[in-house]
Fold this sequence. Notes:
It is built from 15 helices and 13 strands. By secondary structure, it is of the alpha/beta class.
Amino acid sequence: MSKLxxxxxxxxxIGGSGLVATELGLGLAKLGHEVHFISSVRPFxxxxxSQRLFFHSVEAINYPLFSDPLYTFALTAKIVEVAExxxxxxxxxxxxxxHSLCAYLAGEISIHKFSTVTTIHGTDVTLVGQDKPLYPxxxxxxxxxxxxxxxxxYQRNYIYSHFEKDKTIExxxxxxxxxxxxxxxxxINIRRQMAMDDEKVVMHVSNFRALKNTDTVVRAFxxxxxxxxxxxxxLGSGPYIDKIKQQCEKLDILQHVTFMGAVxxxxxxxxxxDCVIQPxxxxxxxxxxxxxxxxxxxxxxxxxxGVPEVVxxxxxxxxxxxxxxxxxxxxxxxxxxxQDKQQQMGQAxxxxxxxxxxxxxxxxxxVDCYYDAIAEDDIVYPRDLAIDLQVNSK
Length: 394
Ligand code: GMT
């Protein structure tokens, strides 16, 4: 099969969809494909351009007449520019809003034709996507995308019932690099930046928004403290951080909490945790839980949406209703007071990550999806000739 030229459109966020998109792009380039990232800011894991990896920044359109920088127009124009200049075969939009619609529009405008693939990550169809003015745009772009994938079976069913019954939506679970997220990275010096040696480390990693349910994180930790000498380590930043501080002050537990702020390399800290707590109200997948599993850290989480596809109940983690702080506190106490149990659950998590969420397997699924999209669109153009001409003119 010939190597592809792929445009990846993503949000440059530290976690979530931006991270998955970046890891996918890096993996595709390793397989010999040419990858063009198109985003507002260089994805943080894409250190620099290389032979097969390129970053194209979307510049805002600032003109006094406009009250906003017209990002969607700027992005559409950039996709057209990159597609035409580099003869892209596929544009892969991660997070449908606004990327999927921009990719579609760019396809209509561009002289060079390409296929579009959209990956729906979660809030793009659940929270943001349900917003009244955005709903029809989202539905339209899902219909128009040559192929649509999403990150869990739960999320696929959600799209079927809320947006589009007739479109085939492929589930491609997220993946994890076990050489990056590994218990081998546990480091006593890093641990000491977060906790005392005699404290068990309970970690929560998020962007601290309402859906992450930080209220339950604090309440469960407060209940746990009655049984176990522990420290709550919070990784990330977001609007709920101040609220957590106030809640901890009220409960008089602030001295047991470490706020690490936004960190780019979660893999440095995660292996030093004794368990993670993620009680989100909604979560199409949860990369944090998979990252914890890869690092052999047992998980205590909510049982919502796609989470049961990631965690195996009672084997590598425990799941509860999002507001069941008592249940979560008891589960954490059980894990943290039994070294063998903690170790066995951690190891089971890494085994599961290896078996079900391997990068090679998932990236191959995406590549197949690209070839299928190209075949479905049946775009006829003398691509090989165009590439030959470019190569020969160098
Ligand atoms: O919700 C977040 O924390 C960010 C969001 C995003 O779009 O970056 O995460 C979504 O995509 C991730 C990658 O596929 C999933 O692991 C998260 O579960 C999903 N978040 C939600 O569904 C709330």
